[in-house]
Design brief:
Length: 169
């Protein structure tokens, strides 16, 4: 009986240690949140932040001319407290999935009405609230992790050697 109890104890300790080891692994693309004021609106962006890890990002990991979730894991979301003007076009207040279609010289940024999505796998163009064109530019410095910033003029996505600014009023 004592031998059986000891084996059972060792089993539970091993299982517990295994779970604890897995729980302490770093998350590959941690969830991030950034908030700020753009124009008169409060903007909040939730996204998964992948790392470059020596990979070629633009045109390879993130292919050109295909819808991309603009982050990792769940679709990136953008929430605005008020109606805003994005690149000269009106976007009503609300929460949207944020997608992009990267190009070599121009990007399409997409605000989709279906905010809760996993990646871009169930993306439907018919649910787009707004699409606008923006021009990417070389980032001031290399960004190992994808990050968004919100400022008075709008927001920008920065990753690797690229920055994608979006003007908001």
């Amino acid at each position: 009986m004592k031998s059986h109890s000891l084996k059972l104890l060792f089993f539970f300790v091993a299982v517990f240690a295994s779970f604890m080891g897995q729980a302490q692994q770093p998350v590959a693309s941690p969830a991030q949140k950034v908030s700020g004021k753009a124009g008169a609106a409060d903007i909040t962006i939730n996204y998964g932040s992948p790392a470059v890890k020596g990979r070629t990002i633009w045109g390879d990991l993130v292919p050109y001319d295909k819808v991309w979730r603009a982050g990792a894991n769940e679709a990136t979301t953008i929430e605005t407290s008020k109606d805003i003007t994005v690149e000269g076009k009106t976007l009503p207040a609300g929460k949207y999935a944020f997608f992009t279609i990267p190009g070599k010289d121009k990007w399409t940024v997409i605000f989709n009405k279906e905010a809760k999505q996993w990646g871009a796998y169930s993306y439907k163009e018919a649910q787009d609230a707004l699409r606008v064109q923006v021009t990417p530019r070389k980032a001031a410095s290399f960004n190992e992790r994808l990050a968004y910033v919100v400022n008075k003029d709008g927001f920008a996505m920065r990753w690797a050697d690229l920055e994608v600014p979006v003007t908001v009023k």
